[in-house]
Amino acid sequence: MQNDILKRITINPEVCHGKPTIRKTRHMVESILEYLAGGDTTEDILNEFPELEKDDILACLAFAAKTVQFKDIEFPAA
User: Fold this and answer.
1) Residue 69's pLDDT is what?
2) 10 Å Cβ neighbour count for 65?
3) Domain boundaries, the chain
4) Residue 23's closest CA among 10, 5, 11, 4?
5) Bridge partners of 10?
6) Cα separations in angstroms, 12 against 19, 22, 32, 37, 74
7) Residue 7 and residue 63: Cα distance in Å, rounded?
8) DSSP category for residue 21
9) For 73, phi and psi rounded to 5 degrees?
10) How sure is the predictor about 67, in pLDDT bands with cuts at 50, 70 and 90?
11) How many CB atoms lie within 10 A of CB 47?
12) CATH number of the structural domain 2-65
């Protein structure tokens, strides 16, 4: 199922400077993740952008999870 949901994420160098977007729109995955990190709920986002679907939000989360699986994240020493 995760592969199916990830099909909702598209990358086109001609759209949003090649950043991942939702279903060939200009809604960037990055923006949706920022809304969620800022405390917005899925319902908040869907109310603000009625053209999106719940599975679009889930696809953004799945994409983020896949992305961090393959990268080392460095944090400055505390």
Assistant:
1) 80
2) 11
3) 2-65
4) 10
5) 21
6) 7, 11, 18, 25, 28
7) 10
8) E
9) -110, 125
10) confident
11) 11
12) 1.10.10.10
Structure-token match 């405390």, residue found = 39
Q: What is the tens place of the pLDDT at every residue in 17-52? A: 999 999 989 999 999 999 999 999 999 999 999 999
* Separation of alpha carbons 27 and 18, rounded Å: 12
Per-residue pLDDT at 16: 93
Computed over every residue of the chain, the mean pLDDT equals 89
Angle value at C-alpha 17, between 44 and 64, nearest 5 degrees: 50
Q: What share of the chain is helix, strand, coil (3-state, %, to 5)?
A: 50, 5, 40
Asked if 54 contacts 63 with a C-beta cutoff of 8 angstroms, the reply is no
Rounded CA-CA distance 47/66 in Å is 27
16 within 8 A of 28, measured Cβ to Cβ? yes
Residue 47, phi then psi, degrees to nearest 5: -70, -35
